[in-house]
Amino acid sequence: MTKRINPDEIDENFILASVKKDKTAGVENVPDSQEKQPPPQEEASLPLEPQKEESRRKRGKGQDYETLFIKESNITARLGKTVYIRKEFHERIQKIVQVIGDNEVSLFSYIDNILSHHFESYQEDINQSYKQKNKDNIL
Question: Region Disordered: which residues (predicted)?
């Protein structure tokens, strides 16, 4: 028995915003006067994290969201492992795959593509953290 998706429950704005976010990630303009002012000491560590994440998002090499993530994986799901995720995430991913992927991409492929991109984007950070606790690289 398959669960029917109620089209009224799909958050179209969320899906559109997630696609548009990658296309406009580097478009933000900052006036020159704000660039030259040193940030207060208390807030110095906070602005660095979002900028670091934005640069990681740009590592998609100009590819848009759909070409990065909405594609079939070259590995079959039966060769993978079972992993449990939150119900909300499963429902959200399912909606994304159904709407953006036109039901042509499996949940497995979508998640596999996201994890591949994550490991590519954060490889240096993962290795650095791993080295602090171990001697060799994990990736």
Answer: 23-63
